[in-house]
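Morning!

This is the sequence you dropped in the shared folder:
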Amino acid sequence: MIKVSVILPIYNVAPYLGEAFDSILNQSLKEIEVIAVNDGSTDNSWDIIQAYQQKDARIISFTQKNQGQSVARNLALQHAMGEYIYMMDSDDVLSNSDVLQTCYEYAKKKQADFIFFDREQLVEDNVNFSVSLHSTKYAEENIQYDGETLLNKMLDTTSYNCVVWLLLINRQFLDRIGLRFYPGIIHEDELFTTILMLSSNSIYCLKQNYVKHRVWASSTVGKRFARHNMDCYLTVADELLRYSKAPIIHKYLRYTLSKVFYTGRQIPYKDKPAVFWRAMKSGYLKYIGFKSSVKFFT
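The structure's back. Tokens below.
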């Protein structure tokens, strides 16, 4: 029986991929599978995948033209057989050899829809990134949370962290709610994790740093904020309002879009009118707020 399916979307991470594979394959939990999806890499990532697959039969691999993390993860989810799903970034490292065992046993014992935990950062010298966000800071272990209560708490304490690589998810729960990743966007975790949380009545946390998350020049957070980032956040807003118009969605959008447009002052001025017009047409100015709107154009 496969206890955990580790899903690994891979795009041009050759310098770090071996370390990621080693940290998974050396886990004390042996009943795992690793579903590696090569998303059109142009470096030697595919060669590394094949070399590791020859050494360990627990690795299942696919290769496709570059279509983004959403499509790669969705492909892997079609083939996942584990009781629980862990979606790891292919340049990250699990913090110790017992991470999957500990998380699996805890989630199983609590009959959790999913559990969440924390990370430490591996920031390369040439990257200006200093965010230190702990999702479990205001949560308690051994407490069962429903999604709306937890999301409210996280928004109120500015501790909401949507990334999927901080979650171990029950596969049957995921299949039951029919949730998959929205293709063609970045920040897809914002949409996926928010819906995942609001669909659950059984969420638990482990107050441990279980992932060493790498931030480097070509990683999503290492890149300069651009118009594409803003367009994708607006798509997330569109889809969340399509999912629900409950008060918690409006609260989430106020929390998110005000920060997005404040950060959006970095994008080229020529791109700003079109982005702002899209937000205005969609009725999002009430979420963005006056201060962030002014900052966006300065």
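Headline: The chain has a mean pLDDT of 94.

More detail when I'm at my desk.
O.
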